[in-house]
Structures are given as C-alpha cells and as structure tokens.
Amino acid sequence: xxxxxxxxxxxxxxxxxxxxxxxxxxxxxxxxxxxxxxxxxxxxxxxxxxxxxxxxxxxxxxxxxxxxxxxxxxxxxxxxxxxxxxxxxxxxxxxxxxxxxxxxxxxxxxxxxxxxxxxxxxxxxxxxxxxxxxxxxxxxxxxxxx
Length: 146
Ligand code: DQA
Hints:
Blueprint: E1 3-8, H1 20-23, H2 28-41, E2 45-50, H3 54-62, E3 71-75, H4 84-92, E4 97-101, E5 123-126, H5 130-141
Parallel strand pairs: 1-2, 1-3, 3-4, 4-5
Helix pairs in contact: 2-5, 3-4
Bound molecules: 1,3,4-trihydroxy-5-OXO-cyclohexanecarboxylic acid.
C-alpha cells in the first residue's frame, strides 16, 4: 500500500481565521479530513505534517525515502517564494513531489508569482482551494508510485 507524506507550510495552521476573503473558511483540520477521505478511496495511507519552520520541512523531505514514503504532496506556503533550502530538498529527496496552492499565486501580488519549487516538482496545481489538494493527491497517485 502506498504511503504519502503531506506537508503544509507556514501559517496554514491558521486557515479558517486567516484572511478568509483570500483563503476561505475551511480549517486545516477540515482539509486534512477531506484528504484522508480521498486517500481511503484510493487505499493509501497519508501522514500529514504542518510546520512553520523551514528546516523542519527540509528534514521531513530529506527523511522521506528512509521513512518509506512513495510521494509527497506539499503546500510550501510563503516558503514557495523564498526557500532555496526547500527547493533543494525537493530536488534531492528522490520522490515525486506535487506542489499545491489554495490560491492562484499568479493572480496575486507580484512577489508571489515566482515559485522556487515548481521547477523541481513533478507538477503544480493551484487556484482551486481545497480541490488543489484533492487533485494534487490524485495526480500523485496516478504516477505509478514505487
Ligand atoms: C499559498 C500561497 C502563498 O503565497 C502564501 O504565502 C500561503 C498560501 C496558497 O496555498 O495559496 O501561505 O501557498
């Protein structure tokens, strides 16, 4: 059975009360519950982590293979636009990584238009709210994971 690591980056723990006009009213707990429901349909196990700390996210990615994950679904949040360390960890982890965003970062402030992660991710899904995660998980599972 496949085991997938889900990583939520900084401030996503605040979803529900964080800028609801931008991010909607869904809490992270609700997003995780919907993801778990989807995972059950596909008979895969999810391990879900949220961290506000760049190094912790680097460590999670670096241990991904050793911890027997077959793929990673990540919303790097603000680190998308700033973190060479997370980009390098994605490139080095040896696992397919799908990047997701709740919002369409290209339709927002200019500093969000660039993702350092996208060039090293298998693919990116953005702009569909919680559906970005659901679609991202489906895309990851479609990759014939080993
Ligand atoms: C985000 C977009 C980022 O620009 C922002 O910093 C976030 C969330 C998204 O899911 O839309 O925290 O990754």
